[in-house]
Description:
By secondary structure, the chain is an alpha+beta fold. It is about 40% helix and about 20% strand.
Amino acid sequence: MLTDITAARDAALAEIETADTLESLSTLTTRLSGKKGDLARLKTKLGSLETVDEKKAAGQAINEAMTAVSAALDGRRSLLASQAMAEQIEAERLDLTEFVGKPARGHAHLVTQAWERLEDVFIGLGFQVAEGPEVETDWHNFEALNMSEGHPARGEFDTLFVDHVPPDGRVGTTLLRTHTSPVQIRTMLESEPPIYIVAPGRVFRRDTPDATHMPVFHQIEGLVVDRNITMADLAGTIEAFTKAFFGPGFTSRLRPSYFPFTEPSAEFDIQRPNGDWIELGGCGMVHPNVLRAGGLDPEEWSGFAFGFGIDRMAKERHGVEDIREMYTNDIRFLEQF
Ligand code: FA5
């Protein structure tokens, strides 16, 4: 009997050692610990033993064997469970190494970069940065800039009107500013000369998008009002800006032009080191009517103003073929700058 018990125990222990999954171990557990297990069957035969001592010895041996089998099952179960856990962890492991060291970072949009650099360069030349609202009154956008109602120059600004009834009830007198020039008026009305400001911002026109036009784009305005300001100051400022912004190999020129709010007026162009000319924007001496609208006496004060498109400038500077590309938000395009 004792030999059978030892044999049954050893067979059970050997089987437990070979169980290699939790499922097979579970089946084995049911079989070994159930009533049909070898040890359980041997237990039922205890009664057939002849002496009490034999029964006692065999009973003890069976109990010890059962304890050993049960301990082996537990040990095997926890080993297989920890192996299964390790496998799961390995299978679900996230490779985070790509975030270690040099994470991919975005950067400011091409136009924002140009806007910020323009501010930096003009601040370096002694200018301050001013702002104005994007929704403007007809008065600030046109009237005060020497374009009264019916002025033909208004036709050049395809204006988007805002569906808003102002306190005076004159519908159609509130609009999306068509240029940054109304900031000239607001600055003159709000501060005393000397004035040296630039005003970058978003402007709106009912222009159909094409390679050089967007209905929403950006301009930067410049305004200087002081005593004895002349056209030479304007030309010198444009030249200093051109060299500071584009580099020492670039130069600028003024060409006669017309704007209702400046007199005389000019277009200004810059020349690349390879000789190519790029049109940048408009400028001129602030018109006496504009100084008056800003609350200043043209006999005492004089000034110059300029304005140009930031998007157009960024486009030229980086050799972008089509201005619309800058607004399609294609990451492959934007990443280049
Ligand atoms: C003006 O807007 C004047 N306010 C500029 C000015 C200021 C002149 C102060 C004198 C004194 P103009 O309409 O030409 O001018 O526009 C200026 C610049 O804005 C253009 O040279 C161009 O670079 C840019 N621009 C005009 N329309 C668009 C458009 N639809 N999309 C992108 N850029 C544009």
